[in-house]
Amino acid sequence: MPEGTIIFDDKPDVILEGERRIGIEITNFFLEKGNLEESEQKQSIVRRSVVSMAHQSYLDNGGKRIELSLSFDKVDYIQNQKLLVEKITTLAKNIDEFRAGLIQRDVFKNIPELSSVYLNTGEYEDPKWRIVQCYSGQLMSMEKLRAIVSVKEEKSKHYKPCDAYWLVVIVDSSDRSQEQEIQINDFEKITSTAFEKVIIFRTHSNDVLEAK
After folding, report:
1. How far is CA 119 from the centre of its chain?
2. Under 8 Å CB-to-CB from 50, ≥6 apart: which residues?
3. What is the layout of strands, in order, in the sheet containing 164-171?
4. Closest alpha carbon to 74 in 98, 97, 46
């Protein structure tokens, strides 16, 4: 970063006042569009809600203080929360006398939204029902990066006047809706008429890539 005074603003998000006035727009790199029902952004919220309601329903109906670990299917995503809560509540009632361990798929074959169920039969004062998701790593998509830049270029028409604009794209590696690997070697540079620099930053590992 050049020397200068940082001013937090809007359109763009940050202005660096130095030898030049640089406007910096900051955005996150989500793997899927957040308006899609099947997107990780929406499904992660829905899963937590469903598991919480199913656990409470099970306890309210005389359930034991057991613990469940549930993994959800990415393809058969949650569409009917109320029905799924009922199915998971019933499943818990049906298996709470089982031995501890991984539940066979046949036992919950009527619940396509679930990919695995693990039962802990110990009874606890404060039992937890957990969501345990498995994710496969993937490499950052050049096509999606170009789409992000394109959207921001259109919005840049309404930015405050600056000598130059930079775009910083954040990959939050703690967020499963964003987690992806950045291709550092042999990365094809992108073009942009609005942004002087396009910088990718991946949290935790602190990877930085100047895509332009």
Report:
1. 26
2. 78, 81, 84, 85, 88
3. 4-8, 14-18, 21-28, 164-171, 197-202, 207-210
4. 46
67 beta partners = 120
* H-helix segments, 61-125: 81-95
* Tokens describing residue 177: 């809706």
pTM (predicted TM-score) = 0.56
Backbone phi and psi for residue 59, each to the nearest 5 degrees, phi listed first: -65, -40
Closest alpha carbon to 128 in 69, 74, 86, 173: 69
- My answer on whether omega of the bond before 12 falls inside 30° of 0, hence cis, is yes
d(CA 141, CA 180): 9
Q: What is the pLDDT of residues 127-165, one digit of tens each?
A: 999 998 765 556 777 888 888 899 999 999 999 999 999
